[in-house]
Amino acid sequence: MKKLLSVLLVALLVAGLMTSALAGAADGKKIALVGKSAGNAFFEVAANGFKAAGEAEGAKVDVVYPEDATADAQIKVLDNLISQQPDAICISANDVNALQAKLEEAMDAGIKVSAFDSAPNPASRQVFINQVTNDGVALGLMDAVYDIAGGEGKWAILSATSQAANQNAWIDAMKALMEADEKYAKLELVEVAYGDDEPQKSTDQTQALLDNYPDLKVICAPTTVGIMAAAKLVQDTEGCAVKVTGLGMPSEMLAYTGADDAHSCPYFFLWSMPDLGKMAAYTTIALINGDITGAEGETFTAGDLGEYTITKADDGGTQVILGPLFKFDESNVEEFAKLY
Question: Could you tell me where the DSSP H helices lie in the chain?
Fold first, then answer.
């Protein structure tokens, strides 16, 4: 009998270990992913990556959108989520500072808070999942403007909202680079326009730039909604010599990308959108499980993406950086357009 009991105990122990090994790292955990606004293809691709990675680890992922791309609308979403007590909230912030009180309330309630794509201030998060460094974006975009403009002339920026943390950080870094490097001395930034990540408003802002600056050479849009709207309008405007670059989705930019006069965008940039979502999911799960706290120097495994280290962010908080900008041009845009 004792031998039989021993065998049964060993069998139960092995079964338990097998169940533990097979269980996802986030079994039963609830994660809310909060976007900037509905209908943003950029976010939706990343959200799909987040949801797939989170659910593969056993988490229940709810993707929640505010009514519009404002901080007030996100605050309403957060207020509702806090009452539901998820294990974590991951947010792409519409404003740097306006969400602080509500996100602090979430953390005080024991909810882990991460951010990706667009960071709220350091007091509003435990860690930020950054697609690329601000300086990396600035250098890539400034060199593109320099190249496309032939090293001199007027250019403009078509941004998202005036409060968007990531957009403002990139633009500030671009301005700093212009001041610091004589290479860009003959480039004149005439205006930073805001399309609020709405297709029609971005189109209207592009038209205003064309009307107000007849000798404009380049429009740089560090937003996927803005670059597509600008590229379409410029390409559809007969005789328009302005060129467009920035951050875009290959599938949305396919018709506008080319080095000839028939296309408005010689090339543009982005990063792996599915991987950005996956990275955000793995980082959030690591927070939930206590594998990380968000402190500088901590390391963790982000699933099949590999090992990552938490570093200090430009705003004084901490971040995980996915990787560098990737260039899309006529040689590869069709291939990548099949993916996202």
Answer: 2-22, 41-56, 71-84, 100-108, 134-149, 165-180, 199-212, 224-236, 250-253, 273-288, 333-337
What number of CA atoms fall less than 13 Å from residue 98's CA on the CB side?
Answer: 15
Reading the chain (340 residues) residue by residue, the pLDDT tens digits are 333 333 333 333 333 333 333 347 889 999 999 999 998 887 899 999 999 999 999 999 999 999 999 999 999 999 999 999 999 999 999 999 999 999 999 999 999 999 999 999 999 999 999 999 999 999 999 999 999 999 999 999 999 999 888 899 999 999 999 999 999 999 999 999 999 999 999 999 999 999 999 999 999 999 999 999 999 999 999 999 999 999 999 999 999 999 999 999 999 999 988 999 999 999 999 999 999 999 999 999 999 999 999 999 989 999 999 988 999 999 999 999 998 8
**Residue 63 vs residues 39, 218, 226, 278: alpha-carbon distances, Å:** 12, 36, 23, 14
Q: Which residues of 65-78 are buried (b: 16+ CB within 10 A; e: fewer)?
A: bbeebbbebbbebb
Instruction: Report the sign of the C-alpha dihedral through residues 63, 66, 68, 72, in that order.
Output: negative
Delineate the domains of the chain, giving CATH numbers in brackets: 24-132+273-322 (3.40.50.2300), 135-270 (3.40.50.2300)
CA–CA dist 40, 36 (Å, integer): 8
- Which amino acid, residue 118? S
Q: Which residues contact 219 (CB under 8 A, 6 or more apart)?
A: 155, 156, 157, 158, 206, 209, 230, 234, 242, 243, 244, 245, 246
Question: For residues 229 and 249, is the Cβ–Cβ distance under 8 A?
Answer: no
Give residue for tokens 């949305």.
252
Helix (H) or strand (E) holding 159: strand 153-159
